[in-house]
Amino acid sequence: MTEQAASEVFTCEELWLLQSAVRHEVSQGEQWKFPPASLELNHQIAEALLLCDEYHLTEAAIVLDLADCLVIDYCVPQTAKSPSGAPIGKNVLLKSFRARRAIDGGLNGPEAVEPAQLTPGEVREHLRQMQGD
After folding, report:
1. Residue 53 three-state SS
2. Is the distance from CB of 10 to CB of 68 less than 8 angstroms?
3. CB 65 within 8 A of CB 4
4. At what angle do helices 66-75 and 89-103 cross, to 10 degrees?
5. Is 7 helix (H, G, I), strand (E, B) or coil?
6. What is the pTM of this model?
7. Which residues pair with 81 in a beta bridge?
8. Backbone angles phi, psi at 109, to 5 degrees
């Protein structure tokens, strides 16, 4: 079984925030079920930043699995700001949360309950009642 993943697009400022927060290793990582570090995520962030720099892009996509989302959740403070002082931590976390929802199979958000279907006879009766009022 392959691990599920979802992609999210991050701005260059968000990528720089991720670069400063997401490490490639953590001490005593073997003691964590989901260590708050990821070599693969760190590598993807570096590659995305290089793409942005080399091709003058303003954003790039990263493929996240559940462990990556948990690393972001652990490492990125909600109050983090860009170098210019703009709040971006919340945006990064929300993107991670959306990826988690997609990974969990909730691509379309909460499921709505379909109302019961009326039979043709029930529709005719309902219309008759409406005309009689």
Report:
1. helix
2. no
3. yes
4. 160
5. strand
6. 0.73
7. 87
8. 80, -165
Distance CA 82, CA 96 (A): 18
**SS3 state of residue 90:** helix
* Cα–Cα dist 87/39, whole Å: 26
Torsions phi, psi for 5 (to 5 deg): -150, 165
- Gap between the terminal Cα atoms of the chain: 60
Q: Count CA atoms within 13 Å of residue 122 on its CB side.
A: 4
The tens digit of pLDDT for each residue in 10-61 reads: 999 999 999 999 886 666 657 756 666 788 999 999 999 999 999 999 999 9
Distance CA 73, CA 36 (A): 9
Q: Quick one: tokens of 17?
A: 């925030």
Name 61's bridge partners: 9
Report the alpha-carbon distance of residue 110 to residue 63 in Å, rounded: 23
> What are residue 5's DSSP bridge partners?
65
Q: Which two tokens stand for residue 4?
A: 């599920």
